[in-house]
């Protein structure tokens, strides 16, 4: 967990956040952290974030480490939704710049239905995701690197 470094948080703050997540029984491993979104857009809404700081999906490279990371993020999201909401449809997606709200890559994992929610311009919030896709779409990981 010492590997967490972000543009937004210093080392002390990162340690404090990890401690909070561990006490809250959130999913943590060497690659990702997972927790419920504080403003859910669906019946169940998890965020999966990499421990390593990657600003956006546009910063992913066509290298084995990034493919492995996205696969891990998707796998953790699927596992959480399967345990928490097995009887619902699931969708996954990243925000595409300039619509990202946080300067740290995070995968949104939804158990449908979506909740009615609009942004300040009256647009449906789900429209800002780079990809909201079926959980078993064979193109999801390849699409992240397009």
UniProtKB/TrEMBL annotation:
Keywords: Hydrolase, Nucleotide-binding. It comes from the Eukaryota. Pfam families: DcpS_C. PROSITE patterns: HIT_2. InterPro entries: Histidine_triad_HIT, HIT-like, HIT-like_sf. Residues 4-122 form the HIT domain. A motif (Histidine triad motif) lies at residues 104-108. PANTHER family: ADENOSINE 5'-MONOPHOSPHORAMIDASE HINT3, APRATAXIN-RELATED. This is HIT domain-containing protein. It comes from Brassica rapa subsp. trilocularis. The lineage of its organism: Eukaryota, Viridiplantae, Streptophyta, Embryophyta, Tracheophyta.
